[in-house]
Amino acid sequence: MKPRFLNTYRMSILAVLTALLLIQGFVPMVGNLTLIPGLPAITTIHLTVIIGAIILGPRDGAILGTIWGITSLIRAYVMPTDPLAILIFRNPIIAILPRLLVGLIAGSLAVKLPKAPTKKTLMMGLIAIISTMVNTGLVIGLTWLFYQHQAAGLYHTSANQLIWVMLSAFTVNATLEIIAAAILVSAIATPLLRFKRTTSKKN
């Protein structure tokens, strides 16, 4: 693949995915779906970051993850989805770090994608699952680290029991996000990778 084409391709995909992240981040019920009022919203934004990381690599994955984190930080001030979002996502560490790592980890793992179609599909599904769990796990862990007493008050429980209460609250969300990631990431990333490979041969 020629450097000029590679750079043009990268910038084009990065621009499209950045625009999509902004739409998902700020248009209600597009990237954040509140099924039960008061509980954390289910996100679809991680799909965009993971797909971008698989296609473009860890550096751009980290960039997309950071953009996701910044939109979460801004949303917590201007249009929060629930009381917990107001508490935790106004902290830049909780808002940005887990999302940055989602893109970085997904992109790093995708560097070693196998060539066999079936193995590649399974590997992308596994990458999506791992990346989604990283986001959920870090958000829960950092919330407990920084805001265990305040978050315990929101859930009407003790600080000692908070981690279990949060795990319960996030279980439904995480399960749906993992299922969506496992299915959709490979389904979307596979043709995009094929297009990238085919186009690169012509250039």
TrEMBL record:
Q: Which UniProt keywords apply?
A: Membrane, Transmembrane, Transmembrane helix
> What is an example of a Pfam family matching this protein?
ECF_trnsprt
Has the keyword S-adenosyl-L-methionine been applied to this entry? no
Its transmembrane ranges are: 35-56, 61-78, 84-111, 123-147, 162-193
What InterPro entries does this protein map onto?
ECF_trnsprt_substrate-spec
Judging by the UniProt lineage, the source's domain of life is Bacteria
Any one GO molecular-function label of the UniProt entry: transmembrane transporter activity
Q: What is this protein called?
A: Membrane protein
| Organism name | Latilactobacillus fuchuensis
